[in-house]
Amino acid sequence: MKQTIRHIGMFIFMHIICCALHAQRFTNITLDGAQTIYAIMQDSQGLMWIGTDAGLFSYDGYHGYRHFGDCTVANTRVNALAQQSNMLYLATANGLQAFDLDTYAYRPSTATAAGTTTTRKTPTELRVIDLRHGSDGYGSDVYALLPTRRGLLKGTISGLYLGRRQIAFCQGTQPLVNALAYDAHRRCYWIGTEGALYRADLQLKSFTRIDALNGHSIKCFALAANGTLYIGTDDGLFSMAVSGTISHYQHDSHDASSIPNNIVWACYVDKWQNVWIGTDNGLSRLSSHTYYIYTPLYKATLSNEGNCLHALCQTRDGEWWMGGTNGVIRQGKAWYRQNNSQHPLSHNRVRKIYQDREGGVWVCTDHGINLYDSRSGQMRNFIVYDPTRRYSTAWAYDILQDRQGRMWMASYMGGIFVVDRQRLVQTVTAATASSPSATATLVADVHLADHGANALSALHVGQLVTDAQGMVWASTGNHVDRINPKIMKVEAVPADDVVNYIMADARGNVWMGSNGKVRCYVMEGKATWPVKPREWQIGGKVACMSDVDGRTWVVSGQECCVIGLDGKSFRFKIPQDITPMTIYYSPTQRQVVMGGNDGYVTLNADAPTASVHPRRLMLAGVMVNGRQLQGAMADGRAAGSDDGRVKTLEQAPRTMDRLVIESDENNFTLQLTDLPFSDHPSAVYAYRLEGSDHDWQYMTHHNLDISYNGLPHGSYHLTVHAVDGEGNIGDEVYRLDISILPPWYLSLWAKLVYTLLAAAIAWGSLKFVWVRKRLAEERRQKAEILEQVDARMSFFNRLAEDLKSAVGHRSFDEILDLTNSYLGIQAEKVEIEEPELSPADQRLLTEINEAIEAHMIDSDFNVTTLQEIVGMGGKQLYRKLKAMTGKTPVEYIRDIRMHKAALMLKEGKFSVSEVMYTVGFSNSSYFSKCFSKAYGTTPTEYMKR
Length: 945
Known about the structure:
alpha+beta
């Protein structure tokens, strides 16, 4: 009886575990600024478009992008979406809106929506869009449309209509019809109402109510390629398989992977068969990935206790064993842990799980090794010692079976222990027969340590593998030893780096992973030792490796490099943001399992081959100075702002081949996407901005954002490439030209102003130099004048002294002689040719001549002074002198002075300066000019004649 109850309990437990493992996992997405999701659709390039209570959003798998501004007409509830060519039409609370997918700008709508025309001044709320028929006249009471061969089906607040004819599908008052759908698999129509789900035949004559959904408000439908019908209700999401099986998904506050809210407004199945759900509390995605499944540990164990997995093993009967920091999980059956009364384990820290050729399961822990007893379902613990009992397997790290059937055990600070398997099993079984929890002990047949004839490179042995020639390889920290099991000869394998992991593939080749590279010693065939290893530079620390159908999967962080001996390699990002500590390949299921903290990822072995030829990336968004760039509203303002001051996009980011931004917008982020919700693993990428970056930058974060800050103005070229398994740059997947305009002070107009300013400065400088030269010339002339003044003063002083002496002697002759001596002329007046004049004119001319003679030496003597002397006005003097001499007063005065200067120069007794001052000139240049004009030569040359 007890045995029957145990079997029933085990069956129920296994059924619960299986249901948990196959439970659907939702990915919940928050769109900043929106809460309720009313409409979902996907465009031809795979981008998702979301209609929310706040407006239109797009989603690329990494970011949500809003396409409306606060307090704008686009900031309204979007009830439905429909695409026609490059236009996305929105049925909103503000009527019909049109969004250009090529420019991300709102355009004046030319389409007709159910419930409005574009000529209405007051927009009517729309719930549906009819682009196929272009019909008009639907009121806001129309909730669903479905084109059929028989006409257009309309779901309204008052029931179902085919054209204008109402179709009664239930007794009594016809209910509100929220949703309509055509099902090609079942060849029927689905009608969703407030309270029930109906199935109608194609002739719309037979209607069947689905009792399982009675009482539920049906809000939306979505059909998958396999015929599964997804039904959104006020009580969560339902799915109905073609077989009729119905599943129900509801919000669970304890489960972050459940739908975020039970009120489901929208359902949509994309081209990769992901199911998108719009709820009252955000967006959710039910992934149908075929290439991976993530299983959180609590779903596999139905326990909230965690376990960081470090060891995985699938036994030949298909049973999975998982060990880590909290014991060993025998999937679906037992969890072996320290101090567990039902399933005890010697220690919770599990290092290795191994199945030998006879089917025995061995578990290495930090307190010896445990041998699983399949009859009792319990573990038998044992510790192996060396003959001196100084070293033991108390900290057992690895175990394997050699070709002779012996068990090799690696120990921390204990070396390697070798024991015959049969003796080992018999000893352990006998020692624990009476007390299963006891620890059996025995002495090893062979012990290898770091001393003696066959010394290991170090005492700490972490891993053991066997190559194609039957040799045992042991990793000892920074070293690797190769051991001949027949003669126990130890030979060190050269290594120039820390060895983190060693592995033998199915062909017996030995692989070593270090902090930046992977080595392979090809031991298959007729290889002779020593063998020169092949190397791959992967650029990261190797955590674990596994042979998967002839290719080695190398885990480094959250990336996996797939390496082949044929020279081909590629890498991909490990999904679900898990950092694996261990990896195991199941050849029978062709699945790779990667275990990490509190969960594991199961991947299809063929899935990563999609990374060999990665798809091109898409630019989904651009951020400048921390703000998202958006297209324009219909009035030209930026969709992301209500003041129009935000820069607007001229085209959609995904259609850009060139980005032009202002100099003060040089802090920007390019938001690329590979649509991670598509059914393929993401490749690893590297980028370089020519004109800024000298080296390739590897994209290691959880999105594909590329950011630059403070770039100087100029032209740049961005390229993004996939990275292969060795970290080499592979195929180009994206390119973009970027131009940062110069600041205003470096613009063309500014440069023109600078040119003009430079010309002005140059002209000013030249003028300054010219003025300095002129001033220098004036200073020279002044010095010359001063010299001439000194000479004149000296002349007059000598003349005064001599005249004073002559006057003292009262000798007229002496005075005459002095005059002749100093002036070089007779003491008579200057002879001036006088024309024949009347007596009165003659007297006037004589008076003028005498006045000029009397003031010959006075440089200030001019026409005005002459007028005063002769007592005539200026005009009268001018007419008289002009009539008498034919010259103006100025010319007449100058001629008399020049005549006297010529007489003095002709004598040769005076210098030019003395003559100049004597005839009333103070400027030598002007004197020379006037003299040259009168006599055709300079004073100096005239004096030399």
